[in-house]
Specification:
Layout (H helix, E strand, L loop, with lengths): L2 H4 L1 H17 L1 E5 L5 H11 L3 E5 L24 H12 L4 E5 L18 E4 L4 H11 L5 E5 L11 E5 L7 H13 L8 E5 L26 H20 L2
Parallel strand pairs: 1-2, 1-4, 2-3, 4-5, 5-7
Antiparallel strand pairs: 6-7
Helix pairs in contact: 3-4, 3-7
């Protein structure tokens, strides 16, 4: 298959030089759930070839309402493997590396963050997210981070801002408080996708969530998480193809 065919519309916008930069960029994406899965697809459909996806979870029923690769046919499969199969169906020539792992203090060194051009954070865990931000900002890679996409209904409230200027997001506030409490701060500024909207759950789960084991989780919907993911992808695409 000729990749010129699948990227013909992208090439009109980016030109040959831009497409070349996209194909040469190395991207690592942490978290391929409601936000990260859509980000990965947008990147691969737009010309990113070298993509590493990281997530420890498997597809469960509660993922189906918002996660790209979550289908009845993929239930029980590792999320990264189900997503990798789809991404390779989009571009069989892509170099997709799937790592079914947790990013934390024990595993962080194994990811060699300084070998990437772009690091995308779509992690849910506060501690692991904070660690990734601290380590990623010490590299030369561009870091783009997703703040909280749950408890949102209005897509027009989604925006992009530098981390310290994000307003109205409880996750961003919790991260800033954690950095201040521990006396460790990101080494440089980075952009985030966020929303200042905050609605409340109107119901509760009768059973623990399939993956988290928690008795209460926050509601989230595809029309929000997918836009978060697409906006993260746009940050990479615009940066990589900028003149």
């Amino acid at each position: 298959m000729d990749n010129n065919d699948i990227f013909s519309r992208a090439r009109l916008l980016f030109g040959e030089a831009g497409m070349k930069r996209l194909s040469e960029s190395k991207v690592i994406l942490f978290g391929v759930g409601g936000v990260g899965s859509w980000c990965a697809e947008a990147l691969v459909r737009s010309g990113i070839v070298n993509l590493t996806i990281v997530d420890c979870d498997s597809v469960c029923a509660s993922n189906i309402n918002r996660q790209l690769m979550a289908l009845h046919s993929t239930l029980g499969e590792p999320k990264v493997e189900a997503l990798k199969a789809r991404l390779l169906d989009i571009n069989p020539n892509a170099n997709i590396i799937a790592r079914q792992e947790v990013f934390n203090t024990e595993s962080a060194e194994s990811f060699h963050l300084d070998s990437y051009d772009y690091i995308i954070d779509a992690i849910d865990s506060l501690a692991d997210k904070a660690l990734l931000i601290l380590l990623a900002t010490r590299t030369k890679a561009h870091l783009f981070s997703s703040m909280g996409a749950a408890l949102k209904l209005d897509p027009t409230r989604i925006s992009i801002a530098e981390f310290w200027k994000v307003q109205g997001c409880p996750l961003a506030r919790a991260l800033r408080q954690r950095f201040k409490r521990k006396g460790e701060f990101p080494a440089r500024k980075f952009k985030c996708v966020y929303s200042d909207e905050l609605v409340t759950n109107k119901g509760e789960l009768d059973e623990p969530d399939d993956n988290s084991g928690r008795t209460r989780v926050n509601g989230s919907l595809m029309h929000i998480t997918s836009i978060f993911g697409a906006m993260l992808a746009s940050l990479v695409l615009r940066s990589a193809t900028a003149d």
